[in-house]
Amino acid sequence: MRVLVTLEQITKLAPGVRDGYAEAFADGQRQLDDFGIAASRLRVAHFIAQLMHESGGLTKEYENLNYSARRLVQVWPWRFQPHGPLDPDDYAHNARKLANEVYGGRMGNTAPQDGYIYRGRGLLQLTGKGNYLAATERVRRCLPAGPDFAKEPDAVLAPQWCLAVAAGEWASRGCNQLADADDLEQITRRINGGTTGFAERQEWLRQARLVWD
């Protein structure tokens, strides 16, 4: 059964939704259909729960890299002193320098500024040049006019593309099948790389399941 996702339902969960995200959901059913998310209520609930967490209740566009020195040590303990080689004071409240350090040389980032250019963006905080290239291919399969996100990174945030980017990433990581199994932990690992914010994701899932019951 095809599950409908309406802007009214989204705003019930996220009353502070950004205008661009609201516009995306107002005209986004096709993307949810194309990537298999709308095939069941459980898939929709899990997908929306991850979006809500990653985007701060649909309020956040860019990854927040404005960390204090103390927080840097907590987030990247093996990169920053006392366990790692880097002095956290040199990177505190310097988003560009931090992104180029922690994301440089991986996830398809090769140029000196790639870490910052391809920092987390959008509904699922797409990160790394390799993932921006992959997003281009996935989106163009259902929306041939889609831009080259590696050349236009901020297009990931555009209302006409942001939901397709997130839905394509979700499907490519096998999250539809994990949602069928109601496996929140493994979905979180596929999206996040770990289990950061797991309790909050659980709460978002509880709320989403009430909406799409």
TrEMBL record:
Origin superkingdom: Bacteria
Alphabetical list of InterPro entries matching this protein: Cell_Wall_Dynamics_Protein, Lysozyme-like_dom_sf
Name of the protein in question: Lytic enzyme
Organism whose genome encodes this protein: Massilia soli
